[in-house]
Amino acid sequence: MTNRSLATSYLLKARKRLLVLELLQREEAYSDVVREAQELVELALKAMLRQAGIEPPKWHDVSGTVRDYHSRFPTLTGEELERLIAASIWLRKERESSLYGDIDFIPTEQYGPDAGVRAIDDATFVLQVATRILGTP
């Protein structure tokens, strides 16, 4: 298996999650939208890193690694880089809360339509950038 084939596999998995996000948003499962969006963003960014020959770290927010190696993505603008990083940081921060919650934080009560829309917008953007960088349709 090559970095290219694994990167393509990650991107395919990310695309499937985008379909799920739209369904979850329609079902008003906003905390699940946030959680699945985080996984999509993680997969898409790790696909970019693999495509560039970089072994992604084994943690959920790889935005620091994308920043460190941004020169390996010559078509990535500074504005795009900052938005990728912001999306990854926000969604990573919400990862556990959106799934498990806590005694004083009930995910189904804490996340609303705005969080779902933000998560979908961020995930869609990251997926579009990763698709362009990988050169896949």
Count of separate DSSP helical elements: 6
Low-pLDDT runs:
none
Task: Tell me the total number of β-strands.
Answer: 0
On the 0-100 scale, what is the average pLDDT? 95
Largest sheet: none
H-E string: HHHHHH
Q: What portion of the residues fall into strands of 2 or more residues?
A: under 5%
Specify the helix fraction band. Answer: over 70%
Structural class: mainly alpha
* Rg from alpha-carbon coordinates: 15 Å
Could you say which overall geometry the principal axes of the C-alpha atoms support?
globular
The separation of the N and C termini measures 21 Å
Describe the secondary-structure layout.
Blueprint: H1 3-26, H2 30-51, H3 63-68, H4 78-99, H5 107-110, H6 113-134
Task: Report on the architecture of this protein.
- The chain is mostly helical.
- It contains six helices and no strands.
- The model has no long low-confidence stretch (mean pLDDT 95).
Please give a handful of descriptors for the protein shown.
single chain, 137 residues, mainly alpha, globular
